[in-house]
Design brief:
Elements (H helix, E strand, L loop, with lengths): L7 H5 L3 H35 L9 H7 L3 H4 L11 H36 L11 H15 L8 H24 L4 H24 L4 H12 L7 H19 L2 H9 L1 H6 L4 H23 L5 H13 L3 H25 L8 H19 L4
Pfam family, one: FecCD
Keywords: Cell membrane, Membrane, Transmembrane, Transmembrane helix, Transport
Subcellular location: Cell membrane
């Protein structure tokens, strides 16, 4: 006898037309969310550039960005509006690099956090779990308390970047020697290294020769975007953009790895190679941003959770939307750091902790049994 539409078998095996309709509805939903995320990011960047002790027009940021190609627009009858020279200088040299670096950093940390949570199948995983943040912090603090960081403007970001890469390399090598292919071993080695480097940081700060060195070290450890320049943006932009493109291409493989290593392997995924590549790229983009901003917490931990609640666990949608949401979140956090308690300016990392910790607690309570 043929199965009726209401039979269990028909429910388990929907018709091709029904499956196609469901895929189209999901695609429309994702396109709508993507369009809304892009619009939100553009709006937030324009808002962050225009607000401050000196107010500037919201359209000033696009005008400043388009100024280099203004001559090419004139044959088409397009002319950029004139800006107050003081506004143009303020935006181009102070606000725009700071806001763009915040967007890059938020996007990198959120995407890296989503990747870490997928690879480790652990909702508490975040970009610093492989030692990248601690490695950067230890190198930066040692350079600051010894005075070496003052030798050249590039000394601190270069040292922090190398420290981050050294820490990640150490974790990968030790875990590979101990138990190749084991995510649990990788996690444990990362936890141990974070504890060790935390002790190094504490010892270096406790034995600093001056209070100003201690203040500089603590300021860097809390993460901040004050005095951001276009040089800082240039340090981060290329590795972050290339790394994000690479990570976004692993959505299918990460979906399978979230289910189980065996399911991924049976589908033809080289789980060891994929894990090494995505973890290395996630560490690279984290190192590139941490090197110029300091340690900014909770972005990579909380943002993927919030995105997952909205769109579900599909990594092919979760990763790109985490990129947009992370950028929006950190731009808003940095804007709040500048304006909430004006004239007192908070550090950006302090604001992300003040917002991220309560949100994480709410997520934990929301997911409690019963």
């Amino acid at each position: 006898m043929l199965d009726s539409p209401a039979s269990p078998r028909a429910a388990r095996h929907p018709s091709p037309a029904t499956a196609l309709s469901a895929r189209r509805r999901r695609l429309r939903k994702l396109l709508l969310i993507a369009a809304a995320s892009t619009a939100a990011l553009v709006t937030v960047i324009s808002l962050a550039v225009s607000l401050g002790p000196v107010r500037t027009p919201m359209l000033a940021a696009p005008v400043v960005l388009l100024e280099p190609i203004a001559p090419a627009l004139q044959p088409f009858g397009l002319h950029l509006p004139d800006l107050d020279p003081s506004h143009s200088a303020l935006i181009s040299t102070v606000r725009l690099p700071r806001v763009l670096l915040a967007a890059l950093t938020g996007a990198a940390l959120a995407c890296a956090g989503a990747v870490m949570q997928a690879v480790f199948r652990n909702p508490l995983a975040e970009p610093g779990i492989t030692g990248v943040s601690s490695g950067a912090a230890a190198a930066a603090v040692l350079l600051l308390v010894t005075g070496v960081a003052m030798a050249h403007p590039w000394t601190l970001p270069a040292g922090a970047f190398l420290g981050a890469l050294a820490a990640v390399t150490f974790v990968q090598l030790v875990a590979g020697v101990a138990r190749p292919g084991s995510t649990a071993t990788l996690l444990l080695v990362g936890v141990a290294l974070n504890a060790l480097l935390g002790a190094v940081i504490s010892a270096a700060i406790a034995n600093a020769s001056s209070t100003s060195d201690v203040q500089h070290a603590i300021f860097w450890l809390n993460g901040d975007l004050t005095a951001t320049s276009w040089g800082d943006v240039r340090v981060a932009v290329i590795p972050v953009l290339i790394g994000l493109v690479v990570l976004l291409g692993f959505g299918r493989e990460l979906n399978l790895m979230v289910l189980s290593e065996d399911a991924a392997a049976s589908s033809g995924v080289n789980t060891v190679a994929v894990r090494q590549v995505v973890l290395a790229v996630a560490a690279l983009i984290t190192a590139a941003t941490v090197a110029v901003t300091g340690v900014i917490a909770f972005v990579g931990l909380v943002v993927p959770h919030l995105v997952r609640l909205v769109i579900g666990p599909d990594q092919r949608a979760l990763l790109p939307l985490s990129v947009a949401a992370g950028a929006v979140f950190l731009v808003l956090a940095d804007l709040g750091a500048r304006l909430l308690f004006s004239p007192v300016v908070l550090q950006t990392g302090v604001v992300t902790a003040l917002v991220g910790a309560p949100v994480l607690l709410l997520l934990v309570l929301h997911r409690r049994p019963g």
